[in-house]
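Sample pair:
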Amino acid sequence: MEIYIDREPDQAKLGRSWSKLKLCFLVNPVAGLGGPLGLKGSDSIDPGEVARRLGAGMVLPSISRASRFLSELLSLGFDGLTISPEGIMGGDLLLSIGYRYIELVKLEKPYIDGISTREHTIEFVRNAAKLGCEVLVFVGGDGTARDVYHAMPLGSPFPVLGVPAGVKVYSGVFATGPESAAYLIKLYSEGLARIEYRPVIDADEDMMR
């Protein structure tokens, strides 16, 4: 599912303050690293290698994109509750940017060298409905979109929007960028956007190399 601008707004939501919105937010810190490493994706990257590059001062592409999205949300006046995993999957960014209303989720499986894997994405998404999620935003690529899709229960009560940060972003669930994603969330919360089902496409990285 993806959020789209709608020419026929939801009258029940028009003018509603988005200060009551419960936003679930997650970052795949590995997304986008396959490009600098000469790969066609990031699915097979070792978390330990990511941790070493972080220690050497490397800026992760997905963290940069996530920061832009969160900063734009604040500039648009967002003051709702943001629910996110602890640490590198979102919690650290929310704290550093200065979000006031946050709920940080401690995942059952520990990170590997401080870096998350697809299992952490799946765990968080599976529990999103129980956390009261009203819309889920993820930062990543097609691989992350695939994991989110497989983790969502049938008849999920909330829509999903992707912030593009991966090497592969062929799926139809992504906004055009971090800032446009923030704007779409605002429109959706005010009843000025609609939900559409869009394809998730995850190309085989080995076949593309």
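The helical segments are 47-55, 61-75, 91-97, 118-128, 142-151, 178-189, 205-208.
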